Amino acid sequence: MTLFRPLDDRRPLSGRLAMGVEYDGSAYCGWQRLKHAPSVQAELERALSKVASQPVTVHASGRTDSGVHATRQIVHFDAPALRSQKAWVFGVNANLARDIAVRWVREVPEAFHARFKALARRYRYLILNQPSRPVLERSNVTWCRDPLDADAMHRAAQALVGEHDFSSFRAAGCQSKTPWRHLHFIEVHRHGPLVTVDVQGNAFLHHMIRNIVGALVTVGRGEQGDGYLAELLALKDRTLSDVTAPACGLHFVDSLYDEAWGLPQEPLGPNLLAFLGEWTGERELPACPMVEFRRGRPVAEAAGKAPMAKEDES
Q1: Over 70: is that where the pLDDT of 303 sits?
Q2: Spatial separation of the C-alpha atoms in residues 17 and 14, rounded to whole Å
């Protein structure tokens, strides 16, 4: 695998295109286009429309909140004009602000949908755990001056793995029809002063990861024990839960799809964690109904099992 793939500048791309996008969400109200505030979607569509000389609407693998970053947001759109791979990437980037960039573009079958064909989403939350406030990393990490026990945080987080009702970790204004989500894994590690919360699931509720991290920090400070997250999960009541962690530490690092779609693999971001060396799609996905359904395989749901969690929020 290589980072340096040549961009074709001769053959025009047509039909449905998938695109990988990276952004610093600090200046935006989030991914989704809004009338009253700047969004990443609106900026990307504006740049694409300039290159195509026609309006372009994109569909994303998931929505991110205000201030949240992404290193592998996958979008798709139906190309209204013939442009080469190089023209799409370089042309769009030339019309974008420095805090958004297109990484690649590929032709995909018409059946591909960035949101509805995604098998999983993965986020990493970064905490800079040191006495002094961050300077160079200030926009991409959350600062915690109190010593954190990352091992205790990891142990507490394991109660969340699997399919659960995450009502205790959803925002009050969450519009999802169901609080059920399937967490594939959640890991907490320390790398020097960096404490990382690495989490993957079929989808996430509004503020779900930030609410989980807020509770984990309470455990890391020693204010609660290893069973704290299990206790909050069982309450199914956000009003009895913990604080919401800041948006600046959260990074959307992967949206996973079946290999048949042929999307390029990339190192998992953000670049602060490049030393870990992991690439997208390297971990095996769990055998669960939603993954099997998205892969087009027969789904035999167990009797009495909770409804298959939807991906209407990220």
Answers
A1: no
A2: 7
**DSSP type of residue 2:** -
- pLDDT at position 298 is 73
Are the beta carbons of 68 and 213 closer than 8 angstroms?
no
pLDDT at 290 over 80: no
Q: Are strands 142-144 and 120-129 parallel, antiparallel or unpaired?
A: parallel
pLDDT tens digits, residue range 43-65? 999 999 999 999 999 999 999 99
The β-bridge relationship of strands 69-78 and 250-256 is parallel
65 is catalytic: yes
pLDDT in tens, 151-181: 999 999 999 999 999 999 999 888 889 999 9
> Of the candidates 20, 23, 18, 22, which has an alpha carbon nearest to the alpha carbon of residue 38?
23
- Phi-psi map region of 304: left, alpha, beta (phi>0 left; psi -120 to 50 alpha): left
Q: Write out the DSSP string of 56-86.
A: ---EES----TT-EEEEEEEEEE-SS-EEHH
Greatest pairwise CA separation for the chain in angstroms: 61
Token pair in block for residue 187:
């890991």
Could you say which of 65, 198, 242, 254 is catalytic?
65
Do the beta carbons of residue 57 and residue 77 sit within 8 Å? yes
Match 């900026």 to its residue by tokens: 43
Can you give the pLDDT at residue 300? Answer: 60
Of the candidates 270, 171, 150, the one whose C-alpha atom is nearest the C-alpha of residue 216 is 150
pLDDT band at 3 (very low <50, low <70, confident <90, very high): confident
Rounded Cα distance between 223 and 221, Å, is 6
**Single-letter residue type at 19:** M
